[in-house]
């Protein structure tokens, strides 16, 4: 009987671990020859079998959607600059600062899921345009089934829920809303910093009871990865995807 119980516990723990998927934060850039939010980081995330690769978007003053984390790159403010001022800027690995279109065209050749973060823009009008152009471009390239949207902006989250195809996962990053509030909005679930879940230990279970998915970011230490694997979160976003994959295996 004891052996049967042990086997069942082993099977249960394996099933739980298998549910947690790996998302590479800004792609798998933490390796030789890559850079954050680069096309190579996207390729790398795909090559090691990550479920998802996260990246960030902004819109320029002449309506070109760009991939970058910060609003300023090498002294150039993306929102207030034209594409011609950005197109020759180089990432740390020598790649050009990518447009969303170039990023998506490469993603089309791969299998990795895309976790697209809409950065909060200074102007809601410009932010809305960034969202609308992004949705049109994703539809044109044929990636609607492979994109999840995330944002710290509640305005962006609401617009994405309203305008993205039915069934598209949209998550809020801000950490201020309970699972019930997110469910009421139409969010797929919480996508919160690891400290938020530790401050609200019931939110993971509550989310699952409501039929929501749970992502946690940015989890880089082994002990924290193990903690959230045990908590049965659906996704872990990390700068160390290889370490997380090894733990899950």
Polypeptide structure, described:
With 249 residues, this protein is an alpha/beta fold. It has a single domain, classed as Alpha-Beta Barrel (TIM Barrel). The chain is built from ten helices and eleven strands. The protein has an eight-stranded parallel β-barrel, surrounded by six helices. Helix 5 (154-163) links the parallel strand 7 (147-151) and strand 8. The model is unreliable at 1-18 (pLDDT under 50).
Number of strands: 11
Strand order of the largest sheet: 1-2-6-7-8-9-10-11
Assigned CATH superfamily: Phosphatidylinositol (PI) phosphodiesterase
Report the structural category: alpha/beta
CATH class: Alpha Beta
Order of helices and strands: HEHEEEEHEHEHEHEHHEHEH
Regions with little confidence, pLDDT below 50 for 5+ residues: 1-18
What is the overall silhouette?
Answer: globular
Tell me the radius of gyration: 19 Å
User: Helical amount among residues, as a percent range?
Assistant: 40-55%
What is the third-level CATH name, the topology? TIM Barrel
| Number of separate structural domains | 1
Assigned CATH architecture? Alpha-Beta Barrel
User: What's the multimeric state?
Assistant: single chain
Question: In short, what is this structure?
Answer:
The protein has helices at about 1-20, 40-45, 100-105, 125-140, 155-165, 180-185, 195-200, 205-210, 220-230, 240-249, and strands at about 20-25, 50-60, 65, 70-75, 75, 115-120, 145-150, 170, 190-195, 215, 235-240. The protein has about 250 residues and is α/β, with parallel strands linked by helices.
Topology:
Layout: H1 2-19, E1 21-24, H2 39-47, E2 52-59, E3 65-67, E4 72-73, E5 76-77, H3 100-107, E6 113-118, H4 124-141, E7 147-151, H5 154-163, E8 170-172, H6 179-185, E9 189-193, H7 194-199, H8 203-209, E10 215-217, H9 222-230, E11 235-238, H10 241-248
Parallel strand pairs: 1-2, 1-11, 2-6, 6-7, 7-8, 8-9, 9-10, 10-11
Antiparallel strand pairs: 2-3, 4-5
Helix pairs in contact: 3-4, 4-5, 9-10
């Amino acid at each position: 009987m004891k052996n049967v119980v042990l086997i069942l516990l082993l099977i249960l723990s394996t099933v739980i671990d298998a549910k947690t998927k790996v998302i590479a934060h800004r792609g798998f850039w933490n390796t030789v020859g890559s850079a954050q939010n680069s096309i190579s980081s996207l390729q790398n995330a795909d090559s090691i079998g990550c479920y998802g690769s996260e990246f960030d978007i902004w819109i320029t003053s002449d309506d070109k959607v760009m991939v970058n984390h910060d609003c300023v790159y090498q002294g150039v403010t993306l929102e207030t600059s034209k594409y011609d001022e950005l197109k020759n800027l180089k990432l740390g690995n020598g790649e050009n600062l990518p447009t969303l279109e170039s990023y998506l065209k490469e993603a089309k050749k791969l299998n990795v899921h895309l976790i697209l973060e809409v950065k909060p823009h200074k102007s809601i009008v410009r932010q809305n345009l960034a969202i609308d152009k992004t949705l049109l471009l994703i539809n044109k390239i044929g990636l609607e089934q492979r994109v999840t949207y995330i944002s710290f902006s509640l305005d962006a989250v609401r617009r994405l829920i309203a305008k993205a195809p039915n069934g598209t996962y949209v998550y809020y990053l801000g950490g201020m809303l309970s699972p019930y509030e997110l469910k009421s909005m139409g969010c797929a679930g919480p996508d919160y910093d690891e400290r938020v879940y530790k401050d609200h230990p019931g939110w993971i279970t509550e989310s699952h009871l409501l039929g929501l998915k749970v992502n946690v970011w940015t989890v880089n230490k082994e002990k924290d990865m193990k903690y959230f694997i045990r908590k049965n979160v659906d996704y872990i976003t990390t700068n160390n995807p290889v370490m997380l994959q090894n733990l899950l295996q």
